[in-house]
Amino acid sequence: MNILNKIKDVRSSWKEVKQERYIFMNQTENRRLSMKYAQMYKTKKINEKAVLYESYWGRGMIDNPYALFVELYGRDEFKDFTHIWVLDDFENNQAVLDQYQNDKRVRFVLFGSDEYVEALASCKYLINNVTFPQYFIKREGQIYINTWHGTPLKSMGYDMVEGNSGSANTVRNFLHADYLLSANEVMTKMYLKSYKLEGILPGKVIEEGYPRNDFLLNTKREEEIGLLRSYGISVEDDKEIILFAPTWRESENGAAQVNPEELLDVKKLLEEKIDTNKYQILIKPHQFVYKQLKDLEEYKGLLVPATLDANQIMSAVDILISDYSSIFLDYMALDRPVLFYIPDLDSYKEKRGLDVKPEDLPGPYSNNLVEVAEYINHIDEIKVKYRDAYQEMKNRICRHDDGNVSKRIVDIVFKGVKSNFTYSGNHNKKRLLISCGGLLENGITHSFLSLLEKIDYNEWDVTALVGDDINDPDRHYKVNHMNSNVRTLVLCGFRVATLDEEQRREFVVKRGLYKSIWKKVCPWEMLQRETRRLFGEAEFDYVVDFQGYDTVLTSVLSQCKAKKKSIWLHNDMHADMNKKVNGVMKNFECLNYNISLYPYFDNLVSCSKEVMKVNRKKLSTPATYDKFKAAKNTANEVRIGKYLNSETVMDIAGDEYLVKDELGNDKNAKLIDLVALPKKENINFVTMGRMSVEKNHMALIDAFSRLVKNNPRAKLYLLGSGPLERKIKKQIDELGLRSYVILTGNVKNPFAIMKRCDCFILPSLHEGQPMVLLEARECGLPIIVSKFSTVKDSLYPKGQLVIGNDEESIYHGLEAFVNGKVPTCDFKLSDYNQEAYEEFKKAIQ
Question: Which residues are in the Glycosyl transferase family domain (predicted)?
Fold first, then answer.
């Protein structure tokens, strides 16, 4: 009967999981496409003679992919190839649809459609000038050529403001690519340095020039004028063409900043100052801007469509006016003059950064259109004046552009011809992948960030896998302000899983992998596919799951290929798994499952020797007993030092207040959240930690209520928040302690409060390695700490008072401090951290 009940339970659970996952996977378009792609990935054969082309997420048959298409399409040896073009809008690309409507060699798919997903999963060759979607995974046997779309003038990759977040899918794509095309040494440096690919790049950078620049050198002017007219653009044969091609500006919300009148005003003012019998002006806005202007009546016949290839059109242009757009670098291959209209130099430099000084540009620049018009009127003098600067930059940027770049690239990729300009970066360091999940505000995160400050980057190449949340300013800040030596991979996109795989994954998460039957149910293939999605072809020597609480991340990291894989155990994991918060065991499911994954790691690293002993005793099996190791966590030396020496404090009527946060966008009207700082005349106790059961706050408050009766100057500061916060507030009110117990919530600079207190107390029921004790010691505080099972590794000789964790013991501990019986000790955080770093290295190797 018991067996029958178990079978019924399994069936019921499976039915429930299937229904819940079906709804979950179909809730959003991203999940649906990921699921569709997974099915195609698993079932579709690779078409060995199919090429997929995508430019700017389907804007048109343009740019480098188009140049490679023209070369492949025109060569007899590839006449049996199928060419599939991605378009985001069939209506605006009707001309090319008509051109190839009877050509069986050329097909078109709509970006994001099921046909697109199928082609992405099945074409042998994939060519893109930006990035494929976040669900993309290069299959074994596919060849991916990322051409990128221009030599950068502005900051790129990790060099940008918030570059860690902004580079997520770009770096992920680069790690999938077999070939990254480079026009010149500036672009090669962009890949290897700005995107931090040196040391991890699995593919090759081919610096042979830019395919699209073949159009500049090989296209006839009359052909392009005819093409412009076919798109309704008015062009006069007997006039020279001035093309105004500015880049886009970013608005506050990250979208393209568009002023519909601006481009017309530029054209009108220039025409008032130049000879319009000699010149005509056309405008080519950035594609983001073009989409917003193309249907406006005043721009009819004036805007060069975003669906036309810029380099073909520029072959008919006599003078180019630009700003920071890299379009002018291509144009220099023609030896024709470039002028620069830059009305917002300072603000653009601040927002995006600029890698070239305006005075080093190969032509004159101004923020005044009247001056730009004067440059046009004296263009011959301008060409002479800037001849040397122009030639120097052309030699550096366009030295490979000879009209035959596409041919060379096709020979290299499709025929195996060797290139003399191939770069793969230096792979001479130990490669470490370390993950800390979502960087929540807790001790694990601060220890992780501290560890990144201690690593010797002459020895290690470090990749940090983290989650981001732009709606959480604190997490977003952490992601974008990690140690600059680290290559930050921000999790993006949804896991690629079929519905069946996702249902099986969720089912085994609920049960764990302790029995062979559930190991057979586990979708191992999906987890291994996810490692490929996240890291492409990149290889690591050492993999560390530093968090250990996320079921998906721990599953994926357990399947990475590496010399050694380690997972951190920051606590008594069995106790943490079974603890109840408000009557619910919130950690049970995730930790029960993750503990069942421990056999798939080489090292199970506890945060202290005592914690290791407890974890080994409770969790080890014959297969895992010898895997248990210990390594102290580091404390965030940089963070503590920064906040101890820098604080935002306001004096109001003689009392000090710490500024927690400043809210609001108006510089003249800020909402300021304040915390009253401890006063010297009081007896100030402090504790810091998540308001959860194991921290034992309620027993501390009960004990403190007894102390206050005889010591009315006593104050207790509780730093942090958590699930028990409401209960704790209620307890404080019931005991009449509102003026004695101060709840600060989470504070960015807790050390401003701690250093003004007199004694730190940690009354926990159980802990891993409490980092707050190290932080309190660095603040010079006497310490009272409870005798939890793993406390031994946190003690220093004559450096604290150890007590029980019941109310009576806590009360006597508080009273002991009042009577001068709680010691402090000599402590140097830098020495401690160096020891911890050495233990970390030993543990993972």
Answer: 679-819
